[in-house]
Write a structure and sequence with these properties.
By secondary structure, the protein is an alpha/beta fold. The protein folds into three domains: about 1-135, no CATH class; about 140-270, NAD(P)-binding Rossmann-like Domain (Rossmann fold); about 290-630, Rossmann fold. It is built from 22 helices and 22 strands. A nine-stranded mixed sheet has the order 10-9-8-11-12-13-18-22-21, with helices on both faces. Strand 5, helix 9 and strand 6 form a beta-alpha-beta unit. Helix 3 packs across helix 4 (about 80-105) and helix 17 (about 430-450) packs across helix 22 (about 620-630). It is globular and about 105 Å long.
Length: about 625
């Protein structure tokens, strides 16, 4: 550490001496340009030596004061040039003021000050950019011609990310890539260059671009997408083009994916399934999300699952005063606990092994920890498993949710957020119907408490409904990945089956954003927030794309087998019921589904019979009662 500080101060001293010399030189050159080379004229100027030394001293003092030496010359940029301009301008103003006060600039040409200003800008800025150019090997023509060991790359997108990647590759002598061309959708850029790399046209003519580069001896061996805004449709088209050309397709990371700023070297990664979705990034009010969570006592159920785990990570990053994670599965609990302790060493949190169906235990947890915000993600979510375990599914999804909701009221939690699913809309399976009944209960409880004049501290009940999460436990993507690893076949239930998909990170971000909206609403606490899932995706198309991403040929290298719909499955999912009025919110990625009236007292009476049927393990009786409580439930067997 001491060596680093010494080295840094030594470089600063060298930089200061350099700038002092440049200030001295600019003053002399300005006088020479204005007055010519006649030594008698120069010597006739009053106090020439004093003015020269004073100007140099003023410049160095201002440069140090304005922290001009905090920037690295190796990465000199427009920002540094602006800083130099400000410092030089301030120096000239101070010098001019003192000269005017000292001798009213008698005998000193005023135009010298302007000439000196321009010269000093050129000398300071030019030296820094020349240093950067030398470090980036821009003058090493021999190395630029010797690229035999580098991988020729065609970049798709000619924006800032492409510029940075080209710059990094050219600066680093050990870079694995040589950028041989660019493709960009903006037709006006065709023929122009970025750091000497030509833009040949848009992505539709990539095969032609590849042939043209091949004739020059620079056939691309990799296609890299650098356009962050490329749609899922365009990404799928690129995947087909790359597949036909036999060239691997990859992409640069998005700025939002970089965990700690921008790395000096820009990495690339393979195209992932989520890239093919092409979902636009929603603008999030992270300040409001932090205000909702920071300093609060938060409890998360199902914290070891896909959604619960991501909720735990994101909420932990907003600095809650304390975090309680409740999880039934011991291994899942161990994994999320280890991750949180590693990533957030200063976080105060407690891990509680608990079953949301255990009303006594849940009440004990709430009584002990008194959470202010509760996120309820615990659920039985796998449709086929739920179909064969009707009682267990209802006990968890319905009565577990009831236990959490009533504990929130009893122990004065400010907000409860329940995670729901698109399968709750016109459900055809026990999982969807049980989640719909849980939605009904939270809606009815929220409305009842809101209207109860004796309830001064009513909990806000927020339900967030969304579709499938890519990569979640037991979902189709991990299944396809496993089947690919075994050499196939990939099993698809039906060629027409579609599903909504989003990444787990985006889903949880929007859950938190919806929580902010619901928390701020005064008269709509019983509404259901529905996330914008974009366009539904055909499962068959997803299977085909995953095979291509693995570098294999569908139906040739990997077969696809259609197995038919399983019990409780339907061809497509819906996000809204026909009787639910869709209301826009202030956030583009979130909608409101207006409530369907449900009487809490009537619902509670019906719950008694349903609970008894589940406890007695009579699945047929439980199923019939569930159908009565959720009239739109049309079971498929």
């Amino acid at each position: 550490m001491k060596i680093y500080k010494f080295d840094r101060s030594l470089r600063n001293i060298v930089a200061i001496l350099h700038d002092a010399f440049m200030a001295f030189l600019s003053f002399i050159l300005a006088l020479y340009i204005r007055l010519g080379g006649d030594e008698q004229i120069l010597e006739s100027l009053p106090h020439l030596t004093t003015n020269l030394l004073f100007f140099t001293l003023v410049c160095i003092s201002v440069f140090i004061y304005t922290r001009l030496y905090r920037g690295s010359w190796r990465y000199a940029s427009m920002h540094d040039l602006i800083a130099i301009m400000k410092s030089v301008t301030l120096s000239m103003l101070i010098f001019a003021v003192f000269m005017f006060l000292f001798n009213r600039l008698d005998g000193f040409p005023r135009s010298v000050l302007f000439i000196n200003w321009m010269l000093l800008l050129i000398l300071l800025g030019g030296s820094r950019f020349l240093y950067r150019a030398s470090k980036e090997n821009n003058f090493n023509w021999k190395s630029s011609l010797n690229q035999t060991n580098k991988i020729p790359v065609l970049l798709i997108g000619a924006g800032d990310a492409a510029e940075q990647f080209i710059r990094d590759s050219q600066r680093d002598p050990f870079s694995a890539y040589e950028i041989v061309g660019l493709a960009d959708e903006n037709s006006t850029q065709k023929g122009s260059t970025i750091h000497g790399v030509r833009i040949y046209g848009n992505s539709n003519i990539i095969p032609t671009i590849v042939k043209k580069l091949a004739r020059k001896g620079y056939k691309p061996q990799k296609l890299i997408v650098s356009d962050e805004n490329l749609s899922g449709e365009n990404m799928s088209a690129l995947l087909n083009i790359a597949d036909n050309l036999g060239i691997p397709l990859a992409r640069l990371p998005k700025l939002s994916e970089l965990k700690q700023g921008i790395d000096e070297k820009t990495a690339i990664r393979p195209i992932a399934v989520e890239d093919l979705l092409g979902r636009s990034q929603h603008v999030l009010d992270r300040k409001a999300m932090r205000e909702l969570i920071e300093g609060k006592h938060v409890l998360i159920t199902g914290a070891g699952g896909t959604i619960g785990g991501e909720l735990s990570r994101q909420i932990a990053s907003y600095n809650p005063s304390r975090l309680q994670i409740v999880e039934l599965n011991e291994f899942n609990m161990y994994q999320i606990e280890r991750e949180l302790r590693g990533r957030f060493p200063n976080l105060s949190f407690t891990c509680v092994l608990g079953d949301v169906r255990d009303e006594v235990h849940i009440n004990n947890i709430f009584e002990k920890y008194k959470p202010e915000l509760v996120f309820h993600a615990a659920a039985v979510k796998h449709v086929p498993i739920a179909e064969y375990n009707i009682e267990e599914t209802i006990l968890t999804n319905v009565f577990g949710s009831r236990n959490i909701a009533e504990a929130c009221l009893k122990y004065n939690a400010k907000t409860m957020v329940m995670i729901s699913t698109d399968k709750a809309v016109n459900p055809t399976n026990v999982m969807g119907a049980s989640k719909r009944l849980a939605e009904n209960f939270c809606q009815a409880l929220g409305k009842y408490e809101q209207e109860d004049k004796h309830s001064e501290k009513a909990t806000k009940f927020i339900t967030v409904r969304f579709g499938n999460v890519l990569g979640s436990t037991g979902s189709v993507v991990p299944l396809f990945t496993e089947q690919l690893a075994k050499g196939g076949p990939i099993t698809v239930t039906d060629p027409e089956m579609t599903r909504y998909f989003m990444t787990v990170r985006e889903a949880v971000e929007l859950v938190l954003q919806a929580s902010v909206l619901g928390h701020d609403m005064k008269d709509k606490q019983e509404y259901i927030f529905v996330l914008d899932m974009g366009q539904p995706v055909k499962i068959l198309d997803l299977a085909l794309q995953m095979i291509k991403l693995a570098g294999l040929k569908p139906y040739s290298d990997i077969d696809i087998v259609f197995t038919g719909l399983r019990a409780g499955e339907k061809l497509y999912e819906e996000l809204f019921h026909t009787s639910e009025n869709i209301v826009k919110t202030t956030h583009k990625g979130i909608f409101l589904a207006s409530p369907r009236e449900t009487d809490l007292k009537t619902l509670k009476k019906s719950f008694s019979s349903l609970y008894e049927a589940c406890k007695l393990r009579t699945p047929n009786a439980a199923l019939e009662l569930l159908k009565k409580l959720v009239p739109e439930f049309k079971a498929k067997t």
